[in-house]
Amino acid sequence: MSHVADYEMVVGLEVHVHLATRSKLFSPAPVHYGGPPNHFVHPIDLGLPGVLPVLNGRVVELALRAALVTHCVVHARSIFARKNYFYPDLPKGYQISQFEDPLATEGWMEIEVEGDSGVAIKRIGITRIHIEEDAGKSIHDSAIAGGGSHVDLNRAGVPLLEIVSEPDLRSPGEAGAYLRKLRQLLRYLGVTGGDLEKGQFRCDANVSLRPRGQSELGTRTELKNLNSFRFVEAAIAAEAERQAGVLDAGGGVSQATMHFDAERGTTRVMRLKEDSDDYRYFPDPDLIPLQIAPEQIEAVRQGLPELPEVRQARFEVEYGLPRSDAVLLSGTRELADFFEAALRGYGGSEGAKPLANWLSRDVRETLAEVDVELDASALEPAAFGRLVRMVVEGRVTAANARPLLTEMVRAGGDPEALVREHDLEAVSDRGFLEETADAVISDHPDMVQQVRAGEDKVLNFLMGQIMKRTQGKANPAAAREVLVKKIRG
Amino acid sequence: MDSFTTVQEQSEALRAGAVSSTELIKTALARAEAYAPLGIFTALRADRALEEARAADVRHGRGEPRSPLDGIPIALKDNLIQEGEPCYCASRILEGFVAPYPGTAAHRLVDAGAIVIGRTNMDEFAMGSSCEHSAFGPVRNPWDPSRTPGGSSGGSAAAVAAGIVPLAIGSDTGGSIRQPASFCGVTGLKPTYGRISRYGLVAFASSLDQIGPLAHDARDCALALEVLAGRDPRDSTSLPHPVPRYRETLDGDPAGLVVGLPRECFEAEGLDAEVLARVQEGVAELEKAGVVVREVSLPHTRYAVATYYLIAPAEASSNLARFDGARYGQRATATSLGEMYRRTRSEGFGTEVKRRILLGTYVLSAGYYDAYYRKAMQVRTLLRRDFEQAFGACDAILLPTAPEVAFRLGERSADPLRMYLSDIFTVSANLAGVPALSVPCGFARGLPVGLQLMGPVLDEVAPLRLADAFQRRTDFHRRRPPEPA
């Protein structure tokens, strides 16, 4: 058994993010996932003779958001370069990327890490952010007609942002925290869909070990194409374990690209760096330098939405929400926006807590039942806010509100109208509630005795009987008050 | 109608109803047939051209021609994409490729009503100065079929020289329009880099390539430029500046224009004495018309050929990577991916193309990039400054187009370095991005000699005005090669 703990783990991450644009980086073809192969391509994506790339301006806007949120220095002038290599899913024989002069450098992002004295904030350096195009996909599947290898170029030319961190991460957990935070931020800013399964957020990890106290970095290996955060953490841990074994045995780590076998939880050498290609980078003469004016940077900065941690803090202070609710509600921009719109519909900040409760439980469950995402559902935030207010005011019971919520998620609708339509208005009429309570008391004399003896649980049974008699329409608070008064005097 | 007429003359005849487009196209096709042994075309589109001519005749009949080019026969170099037409770049590797999208230059010409009768032969992927490096066999010079028409737009130059079409479109990366124009006795213009969209031009060296016209005279080049030039959103390097009405600037009076003679070029080693004499006679002719002549200096031009042969192959090595057999064109049979690439490219590319890909791959390689490519780009900057400085003292620069007249086929094919030196006077304009044209200025040993005029960036007007004034005073551009036997 090796002794990973004897070493300091040094991890740097390279993240590739698909930018959420309608069309590709250099062509007007739409960005589309899951379509039939080679249907979402333009002559530019196919690398036909005579075509030329034209930069999609939206890409620059999104890239600038990412650069600003990670506190990077945005360069007034960056250069697109060609990275030359042959592969069938690379139609031009080169990838257009940025090399010597990237869009942005020298940024940072803060993550929360578990320290000896609880949770601490750690700043992770961002080395660079640059824009590049994605390649197509090679499919090696004998099941496809004709067998052999096939190429799908739907992905070719999809805009990517490469975000390279400094080797500032010291554990698999830190790497995971960095990735989750980065993904949350970029999704918040609308920079990326961030869907890992669609390959919109991909990660390579550079891992090395060094004896504790040594400042010089050890030889690193690279883990490629890790497609879930759990895999990243497991792969880094496995690779560190492997390197510790090599070092413990007196050996040296070879610079290599590693493959992570998720089933076995081990890493193995995919290829050694000595065999690495010479990509013959040079500035792409088909593209002019990307010039970014200070005013453009300022305009993007002004347009940045409130960031998750700021919003979370505001939810706590402004609405008096507990931290756990604030974290949950600010987790994605869609949910946070929905919550605040619902609160406006509710018509008072006192609705924050009940709305948080409904969103964290009832809404989530209902969305799961209907199998729809919040932003794709028919649920109007303002209408939802009014529904919750009706529950709080006792105008409809929680039990009856739930099926209405389902209906609103499926088809939308106004809660007041729905309550009337289904005749679910809660009854608070004193005379009616007293009649019902009298009937329940005379039906269950034993239970009434137990309540008098102080068994409050039994009171719930009697409440249930009232609800049963009124088909759930009795205002629970009013009914309970009447019942208690009648039994205990 | 005389097939040697210019675009302007044919256009006037069409307007007057003295001739039909159908007749013009039939004559052009007949002459193309008669000149078939010269290897000028890689493909003719007779049926479609005649069909288009009938439509043009209807427009002329209604008195609604689209432009002065409406109904005029033209030819396109085989590296220019025209939608629905083959585009082989005279290479085996593109055999069978039919362009599925419109290229800007061809599209603008067709929109103006011009009728493409065929695609002209060239050096494979525009790499060469003799049209000997073609999968279709060499092009022969109409003035002497044992000689080269120059290259790489030799087919376009020969098509005009032979009176087949009054206008042919070529491309110029290091002299590929001007040197063949010089060798064939026609007028050829390489505009400012970025003046004409490259979308649809199969790239050789992207930072040097520029499309341009070859015609009988400067006026026709000006007309073609008006149609071809202008910003194209599909080409990021195309320039947004408004396009002048070039023809309106051709007043025939160049008096007061200052022409600079770069002393380095007139003293260049290997410059044929008779060529030099014709160029000097041309200078004297312009002086008679009131042009002021002074000496200028372009000190870095002696590095131009070396610089060019680093930058152009470097870009070419990358531009030609897409011809890999995976998606279009020819694919060799093989049992592995590596073998497929090797065999496809080994069999598909000719010797000169391979030589330049190897050269370019080498100069971009890690460890050599700084010494070669980066250094060449620095020299290019110095060269550009030479021109800026020289144009501070003159309106146009005048020099020979080529150091010689058309040489014999086969004479240089074994000596690439000597072949590269044919570009000695032309590559500088590409490296500096300035416009340059070649006009016929006489004959040496019975073969045409060209005189080159360069202007500052975006100033095609000065060289065109000078060329037009020169052609009003001379008739070299009206001389004709012998008719085919």
Question: What can you see in these coordinates?
Answer:
The complex is a heterodimer of chains A (489) and B (485). Chain A has 489 residues and is an alpha+beta fold. In chain A, 40% of the residues lie in helices and 21% in strands. In chain A, strand 12, helix 4 (229-248) and strand 13 (256-261) form a beta-alpha-beta unit. Chain A has a 9-stranded mixed β-sheet with strand order 2-6-7-10-1-11-12-13-14. Chain A is elongated, with a radius of gyration of 30 Å. In chain A, helix 6 (308-319) packs across helix 7 and helix 13 crosses helix 16. Chain A has 3 domains: 4-296, no CATH class; 308-421, no CATH class; 430-488, Arc Repressor Mutant, subunit A. Chain A has helices at 43-46, 57-69, 172-188, 229-248, 294-302, 308-319, 323-329, 333-346, 352-370, 381-392, 398-411, 415-421, 430-443, 445-452, 456-469, 476-488; strands spanning 7-18, 73-74, 77-78, 80-84, 94-98, 104-115, 118-133, 137-140, 149-152, 159-165, 201-211, 221-226, 256-261, 266-272, 282-283, 290-291. Chain B has 485 residues and is an alpha/beta fold. Chain B has one domain: Alpha-Beta Complex (Amidase signature (AS) enzymes). Chain B has helices at residues 7-16, 21-34, 46-61, 104-111, 154-161, 178-184, 218-228, 263-266, 273-288, 304-319, 337-348, 351-364, 370-390, 416-420, 427-432, 461-473; strands at 41-44, 73-77, 115-120, 167-172, 187-190, 210-215, 258-262, 292-296, 396-400, 436-444, 447-454. In chain B, a hairpin with a 2-residue loop joins strand 10 and strand 11. The two termini of chain B are 21 Å apart. The model of chain B has no long low-confidence stretch (mean pLDDT 95). The A-B interface holds A 43, 46-55, 82, 84, 86, 88, 91-94, 149, 151, 278, 280-282, 284-288 and B 79-81, 87, 89, 94, 97, 99-101, 103, 198-203, 205-207, 233-237, 314-315, 317-318, 320-324, 326-328, 337, 341, 361, 364-366, 369, 373.
